[in-house]
Amino acid sequence: MIVRLRDVVPYLLGAAVGIAVLVPAAARAADRQGGHAAAVDPRIGTGGDGHTFPGATVPFGMIQLSPDTAMPDFKHAYKWAAGYQYADTSIMGFSHTHFSGSGHSDLGDVLVMPVAGEVKLDPGDPAKPGSGYRSRFSHASEVERAGYYAVTLSDYGVRAELTAGRRIGWHRYTFPVGKPAHVLLDLRPSIYDYPGKVLWASLRVRADGTVTGCRTTRGWAPGRELCFAMRFSQPMTSRELYDRETDVAYKGFAGPGYRPEDSDAQNGRALVGVFDFGELKRPLQVKVAISPVSEANATANLDKDGAGWDFDARRAEATAAWNKALSVIDVDGSPAQRTGFYTSLYHAMLAPTLSMDVNGEYRGPDHQVHRADGFEFYSSWSLWDVYRAEEPLMVLLRPDLSTQFIRSLVAAREASPFGILPVWAYQGLETWCMIGYHAVPVIADAYIKGIRGFDADRAMKAMVASASYGPYGDLADYMKLGYVPIDKEVEAASKTLEYAYDDWSLAQMARAMGKTGIASAFDKRAGNWRNAWDPKTGFMRARLSNGQFREPFDPTFAGYGSDYTEGNAWQYSWYVPQDVAGLIGAMGGDAKFVAKLDQVFDAKVDPAHFKNVEDITGLIGWYAHGNEPSHHIAYLYDYAGAAWKTQARLKQIMDSQYAARPDGLAGNDDLGQMSAWYVFTALGFYPVTPASDEYAIGRPFVARAAIHLSNGHTFTVSATPLDDAHPYVGSVTLNGKPLDRTYLRHADILAGGELHFSMQAEPNRDWGRSDAARPAAMSRYGQ
Known about the structure:
Blueprint: H1 14-17, H2 25-30, E1 66-68, E2 90-91, E3 93-95, E4 111-116, E5 135-136, E6 143-145, E7 148-153, E8 158-164, E9 168-174, E10 180-186, E11 198-205, E12 211-218, E13 222-232, E14 238-243, H3 244-254, E15 265-268, E16 271-279, E17 284-291, H4 295-305, H5 311-326, E18 329-332, H6 335-348, E19 353-354, E20 361-363, E21 369-371, E22 378-379, E23 381-382, H7 383-386, H8 390-397, H9 399-414, E24 424-426, E25 429-430, H10 439-448, H11 456-467, H12 475-481, H13 492-512, H14 516-526, E26 533-534, E27 539-540, H15 569-572, H16 580-586, H17 590-602, E28 619-620, E29 623-624, H18 643-657, H19 673-683, E30 685-686, E31 694-697, E32 704-708, E33 714-720, E34 728-734, E35 737-738, E36 743-745, H20 746-750, E37 753-760
Parallel strand pairs: 33-37
Antiparallel strand pairs: 1-3, 2-5, 4-10, 6-7, 7-8, 8-9, 9-17, 10-16, 11-12, 11-15, 12-13, 13-17, 14-16, 18-32, 19-22, 20-21, 23-24, 24-25, 26-27, 28-29, 30-31, 31-36, 32-33, 34-35, 34-37
Helix pairs in contact: 6-19, 8-9, 9-10, 10-11, 10-13, 11-13, 13-14
């Protein structure tokens, strides 16, 4: 890890551009606030393929107010999935909705840009400064904090500051003295843009100066509607509302110049508003609320959650919200370790996001308006990713929110036209991205670990319905044949394996509820992984409908249309988290299993091999830490009695795949999964099999961490000596007593106490070697 050396204070580059600027003294003082939030560096992941955003938000909040450096067309959008790339040199504005770390994208709603002087109505070319309203900036002028972002727009000499509440984005713009101040609102841009994406938009200025509007897009979730309400701290001197679609046509006939269509209301597909404020003697504040339902709801959100004009108080509230959320774990370590840990925990607490208005209304997957009854509705579900570690982390740290999340998943299923749980949803709408029905293990993991407060029978009904819906991912053939046939469905090996795990997790919850019939049926389906196993080649493969494996076969091949989803046979042949003991047996026993694991990590692989599969990154041999199918693999040595090799591989991964710099994430953070992996691994254990009550033990990467549990207990992890010279676990004690097993039970953690690691220079090959010492697998459940 690399320590963050600079601590930029919010100063302005006025002298550099020859412009005098007003700087609130309170803003300078606010940067000196402490707490765990001070260790967070939101820049991490904003470069490379991390796809995180640096802007202002609060834990699980509806608003993600952040700068956008580009919103390119869909053919070139991958690196700008969060709207911002650290390598860029200009900002086109600040929008209010972003995904954190997604591999696909959308959002970028309600783009706002402060302008001093002449106003241009189009963003312009970043390679041609002055060609549009975008502005150059310097990273030296940026301040990135948990809940706060600031930057100087050097082409205008405007200092922009952003903070956020749960439903409100707060802006403070300090304009240069002697220049007319304007705020431009552009309803055209959208992340992952393409022609015709905006189907329709409305924009109006109310009698009291409130600006409201909506737009409907046909993006990743077709037909998504997002509304907003905006207010300014000072009255407008004038305003102009444009429909650029008709303006451009008008210009073609009437020469240069822009023709405002109306100053009060406008409808169309290319709307821009310009709000004028003259020369200002004090900073201008802007507050914006959004709603997935209506302008009226957005205004109600603004009225209830956006009272007053005290930007510094709102910033302090955002900082306090982060300090409270992050204080669930106290970590002792170097500044670099604290930055890495708390930034990861911060990223893990960004999604799912609140997607409900103050009156309880939300938009469902049927595109209809629903009202939550006694819970808050959350969406932004990258379930193929987050079921692995992100949601188990929330079960451990925030069981109260896990209850809300599960109620949201079940509510979404009951509003679904297809009657199944979300797959990849945001703002209540479904995208059908990725594979599996991984809302099932999210619910099962929570239930097995004691989370209640939701209707378990309704949840089970939703789980069974999702696991039995034949048209989804060729579940019909899977239920008939015991596998997904590759001549009927692409990526069939991955789907067979992931369905089998999801089936197992469903059986676990059914058994715990006393539903033995359901448990028995899905226990049988959980063994379907064996139908993908080819003992001749030693890999998981896809079969044809006639039962034969598809030929020809190359275990290194990856790509759409292959046997696998975002991976190859070297990565997916380990995906049997519910029956690792069975997989070890299929591979020929402990020694052969360990030897093949070593082949994964020690292989010489040219990254160019995956040049056409952009999600496979962070390579260590065939192991690809930048993508989720590999995330459990290093822990599998535990299951074969070689825990010391898990310890060595984890250090290899932590040292090479994470760093405290903008390109410090090896791949997409995927709404917190990469970061949740880091948090668990730094603590010394990991949920290889969500929906069991066990965690595989690795080794810690912080000297001391105290987890403050919701039941009032504290569970402490400590390690001595913790340095590069002592990378291996010599022995472990739990509450002072020797711990000979390489797993923790959830109940061990909830009881409180201390897990202590004695580290040493050489591996202890005996610790965790016996069968009884290893983490559980399906065969040990008596199935």
